[in-house]
Specification:
The chain has 497 residues and is an alpha+beta fold. It has helices at residues 2-25, 59-65, 76-86, 89-97, 103-112, 122-127, 147-152, 167-184, 189-198, 200-213, 226-243, 272-279, 283-289, 342-348, 353-359, 399-405, 410-416, 436-444, 459-466, 470-476; strands at 29-30, 35-40, 50-55, 261-267, 303-309, 329-335, 372-378, 389-392, 430-433, 448-452, 489-493. The relative contact order is 0.08.
Length: 497
């Protein structure tokens, strides 16, 4: 009897000790975006508690350990989508890595909204985290916003930009929308996802229909469109594979549990190719991180916002404006109205008719009402735009004579060439006249970027994305037909407008 009592007593002690340890480990205090503070008590009653900082190894560990406790039941439909991914595990790992620059930001924004952070998997279902993604129905970006919903959440579209493509602005909007849906459907994650896909109005109708019939109103019991019926199982399948990757032999790609991009604000308008060269990374990545800029430059505003890889941020520390030049060019987009013509526009914007023609590839002087023209605005001291050209010094030339020919001040011509106003000119010397940038920017339109073809892409979608013709894509890539393969790299010639 005493022996039995002792055993029971020891069991109780062990159980209590185990419970105490569990309590300690569950009392973690969040001290940052990528680490937790764990308090461990010493056995010495006179000692002070030690505080040990334990960082999460990667974004996946953080996601898994801090996700909601929602338990998913795996049915045949979910198994189907799991097996589709498991057919090629290496490809699945590459698929997961496509979120590298964005998923940390998404998780942080979800946490701010007190939403389940596993919703960071949703953009995989929507677009595979591709900011350039465009669906056949017109949904755009990593969250696949339709135009109307985008406008409701203040995603703007201008001649220069499209916020639905912007991975960061669209994330903030999407999480605002998810927050609304999550509350509307009482925290039911499956109904929230269904509403995101099909719209809350349709979902309400289907729920009310089941209520009238006296049947269940959970996701699995609703009569929903086929796309929505597949949508939630796709999400659950992805979640199961990520959260139990070891079980399925999946190697999750390394994505740090910290910001890998940083925001920089630059005064004025910035040409994207110039920006790319300064930062020292390929234009394709600049376009991906800043997909909201749909033209070849940011909008002509007081400042431009860009996202860059974190390791390049040092280039902008203490450098107020790395692109400041003596002959900057700003651009405006002018929508043609009744009464407009090239001559009146040249006078209005203090430029030349020939320049407007050249920049906009105009073959006729007839302008269509509602069309858009790109017009440069020079920033010389006289605020007059001077067309760019190279002048070859001939016998009898002087700075004064050349300046007079081009209606320039001698000091302006000297500054354009980084010489003194009294400098001696020699025969055959090349002088820069006007704004170099305009020449550079005209030439930039002839440059190409490389685009990786995504699942579901077509020549039409790609042409629409970059605002070019299907014919131009086929010509530059020497394509005989319209066939594209996922993963195929094609060239796209970027236009200025």
């Amino acid at each position: 009897m005493e022996r039995q009592f002792l055993i029971k007593y020891l069991v109780i002690l062990i159980t209590l000790a185990g419970c105490q340890q569990l309590d300690v480990n569950n009392s973690n205090i969040d001290i940052g975006n990528n680490q937790k503070l764990i308090k461990n008590s010493s056995n010495n009653n006179n000692s002070i508690s030690d505080e040990v900082v334990t960082p999460y190894l990667n974004v996946w560990e953080y996601l898994i350990k801090n996700a909601s406790s929602n338990e998913d039941v795996i049915n045949d439909q979910i198994l189907f989508y799991m097996n589709a991914h498991l057919k090629d595990i290496d490809k699945f790992s590459e698929y997961l890595n496509d979120s590298y620059y964005f998923i940390y930001f998404v998780i942080n924004e979800l946490e701010k909204a007190n939403l389940p952070i596993e919703l960071a998997l949703l953009p995989y279902i929507e677009s595979n985290y591709d900011p350039f993604s465009i669906s056949s129905s017109g949904a755009v970006g990593i969250w696949q916003f339709m135009p109307r919903t985008g406008r409701l959440y203040e995603l703007e579209k201008t001649w220069w930009s499209e916020d639905r493509h912007d991975p960061f602005r669209s994330t903030i909007a999407a999480i605002g929308y998810l927050e609304y849906l999550y509350k509307r459907f009482d925290g039911d994650i499956y109904l929230t996802l269904a509403a995101y896909n099909a719209g809350p109005t349709l979902l309400d109708r289907r729920i009310n229909k089941n209520k009238r019939r006296g049947t269940d109103v959970d996701f699995w019991s609703l009569d929903l469109p086929n796309q929505t019926k597949d949508y939630v199982p796709k999400y659950i399948a992805l979640k199961e594979l990520v959260f139990n990757s070891d079980k399925y032999g999946i190697r999750l790609p390394y994505i740090p549990n910290e910001a890998v991009v940083k925001k920089v604000v630059i005064p004025g308008q910035v040409e994207i190719l110039t920006f790319s060269e300064y930062v020292g990374i390929k234009p394709e990545l600049i376009y991906k991180l800043n997909a909201g800029y749909t033209k070849w430059a940011s909008a002509p505003k007081d400042e431009s916002v860009f996202y860059i890889p974190e390791e390049k941020y040092y280039l902008f520390e203490g450098n107020e404006n790395p692109f400041k030049q003596s002959n900057e060019i700003n651009w405006i987009s002018h929508i043609i109205t009744k009464g407009d013509n090239l001559w009146s526009l040249a006078v209005k914007y203090d430029t030349e008719v020939d320049i407007i023609r050249e920049i906009n590839y105009l073959r006729t002087d007839i302008l269509s009402i509602g069309s858009t023209l790109l017009i440069p605005l020079g920033k010389t001291e006289s605020n007059k735009f001077i067309p760019y050209e190279m002048y070859i010094v001939s016998e009898g030339d002087s700075l004064w004579k050349i300046a007079r020919k081009y209606n320039l001040e001698v000091k302006d011509l000297a500054r354009m060439n980084s010489i003194n106003e009294n400098s001696y000119l020699y025969l055959g010397q090349q002088l820069t006249v006007g704004n170099k940038n305009i020449h550079r920017n005209i030439e930039s339109k002839k440059r190409t970027i490389l685009y990786s073809v995504k699942q579901g892409d077509s020549l039409y979608k790609i042409a629409e994305l970059f605002d070019v013709s299907i014919k131009s894509i086929k010509e530059i890539n020497e394509m005989d037909n319209n066939d594209l393969m996922p993963g195929q790299i094609i060239k796209v010639s970027i236009k200025a407008f």
